[in-house]
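HTH hxlR-type domain-containing protein: structure, please.
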Amino acid sequence: MTERDDRLLRGLYDLRNLFGDKWVPAIVVALRAGPLRRIEILSTVNSYFIDENWTDKQRVLHDSILARSLKKMRMQGLVFRERSTKSFPPEVEYALNPAVADALEAAEPLIAWTRAHPDLLAQAQEYSRKHGPHGGSSADEGDDDFPPRPA
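Here you go.
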């Protein structure tokens, strides 16, 4: 493995560790416009259309799951929790770490790539729908079920 390959592999796994949890992408997008209270995050995320083709997505985010996700995201440094004592009861808002906002900007070219390859994404979604997110079979089974490599 070359040094470049090693950096790429480590970077991809680092990104997966940061953004790979089920609800993190939706929460991050909700916070992109600025700080929100937990109930505002919940309603914003639940207003999003989550594509049912991705089998690892529940269609509704519940408050208990949001609370756990936000706590983990705080521990990871993805979001900040800000408590305001200017009102009673005190209000708590969550805001993106500026580095995460930078990551969203940097992701734009990758997102454009996904729009340029809808057939590949549809194939991946179909496979995940049939076999679950982790495949469910050995690597050598069923290789004939997939289309040939493009020339």
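Notes: The chain has a mean pLDDT of 85.
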